[in-house]
Design brief:
Elements: H1 2-22, E1 41-45, E2 51-55, E3 61-64, H2 68-74, E4 81-83, H3 96-105, H4 119-125, E5 129-132, H5 140-147, E6 151-153, H6 163-176, H7 179-200, E7 210-214, E8 226-229, H8 232-236, E9 240-241, E10 250-253, H9 256-262, E11 266-270, H10 271-283, H11 285-289, H12 292-295, E12 299-302, H13 312-326, H14 336-348, H15 353-358
Parallel strand pairs: 3-4, 3-5, 5-6, 7-9, 7-11, 11-12
Antiparallel strand pairs: 1-2, 8-10
């Protein structure tokens, strides 16, 4: 009896298959053996370890939070932006990714303040993806729930070349379908990092001139007292940064009596603070002229690289210029303008260094008393 039932079941299955073939149909595999993603959808692991379902091809995005649009531009994906934060609609040379793309960004709808997303405006521009950095003012899950739009978090970076910078490039390459660009950019930046390290790591500390960077911006403009421990361009070239000896972290105001006690061999001035420094020089010339580097003309520029966090291309150019001043023998073969142009071209897709020069922001010796 069992054998008869088995034969009947086989015959019934055969009849069903013949019927489907006759009708031109195909048997559909059970849901349990189909892929878990719908057609045209894929899953990406973002910087917060979240699995996010995104379209197979991403063509429309908005960027929320410090660094999101910057790194999108580095990936040559700026044309995907359908809205930008209000800050990005304003012109300026302090963010070169914005400067070279401003004609596009100026006409896009504002979808947020600095890291503060405007939910209705985001919905109105209808992006497929919201790219967000951790410094945004909203939880990614909350923003995703409010908009109904997938949110992909990227680490971002507020320094030069750290793990977060490379991970951001990798994630965005996968997100935008620009893996080749991400690989090319990563290889180039690794090469920059290695070149700077190879030329400077072997220089003995006692052979390095001491360096002080002034006029560093943080939460606004600062004068000669504004400096930074772990200053990105100095860190890349193993400079003897006097601010590193204070036990402080990041940017801070140092006691000017301490600078006198240090009497640094070389002083660098961030252009953001130059006007404040010159105004203070007019009021206190004796202080500045007590510094050997000021008297002997060893004061040099740094092009401001921190605006809405670190602008990588400018920071790397700053590192090469500082290295050429501090290690002239090791960098004798480097043409700073040429190297700056190369870095700008690679990260920005164009070279606006001449525009910076015309505006007065160039690598050069600085006379504070001018």
């Amino acid at each position: 009896m069992k054998q008869a039932k088995k034969v009947f079941a086989l015959l019934l299955a055969a009849v069903m298959l013949l019927t489907l073939s006759a009708c031109g149909g195909e048997a559909e595999a059970p849901a349990s053996v189909q892929g878990t993603e719908a057609p045209g959808v894929r899953t990406i692991l973002d910087g917060n370890g979240r699995e996010v379902e995104i379209p197979e091809t991403v063509e429309r995005v908005v960027c929320v939070g410090v660094g999101a649009l910057r790194y999108t531009c580095y990936l040559d994906a700026q044309d995907l932006a359908v809205g930008v934060e209000e800050y990005e609609t304003k012109p300026g040379m302090d963010r070169m990714y914005n400067y070279v793309n401003h004609d596009k960004f100026a006409d896009l709808p504002a979808i947020g303040g600095n890291g503060d997303p405007y939910v209705e405006e985001i919905i109105n521009v209808d992006p497929q993806i919201i790219v967000m950095t951790p410094k945004a003012s909203v939880d990614p899950e909350a923003l995703q729930a409010k908009t109904g739009i997938p949110v992909v978090v990227i680490p971002g970076s507020d320094t030069t070349l750290d793990d977060n910078a490379y991970e951001t490039i990798r994630i965005l390459g996968e997100l935008y379908g620009k893996e080749d660009r991400a690989e090319t950019l990563t290889e180039y930046l690794r090469g920059i990092e290695k070149d700077l390290n190879d030329r400077t790591a072997g220089v003995a500390d006692e052979e390095k001139p001491s360096a002080y960077v002034s006029g560093v911006s943080f939460k606004g403009l600062h004068g000669f007292e504004g400096t930074e421990a772990g200053y990105g361009p100095f860190a890349l070239i193993h400079a003897k940064n006097l601010a590193d000896t204070t036990g402080q972290m990041g940017a801070f105001d140092v006691d000017l009596e301490q600078v006198l006690a240090w009497d640094p061999d070389v002083i660098f001035v961030d252009f953001n603070g130059l006007d404040l420094i010159r105004a203070d020089y007019a009021a206190h010339p004796d202080f500045y002229n007590s510094l050997t580097a000021v008297r002997e003309g060893r004061v040099y520029s740094q092009i401001s690289f921190r605006s809405y966090a670190s602008n990588l291309e400018t920071a790397l150019a700053d590192a090469y210029y500082a290295a050429a001043i501090l290690y002239p023998d090791q960098f004798a073969d480097v043409d700073i303008e040429e190297k700056t142009g190369e870095i700008f071209q690679m990260l920005l897709g164009s070279n606006p260094y001449n525009d910076l020069k015309e505006a007065g922001y160039e690598f050069r010796q600085i006379t504070i008393g001018e």
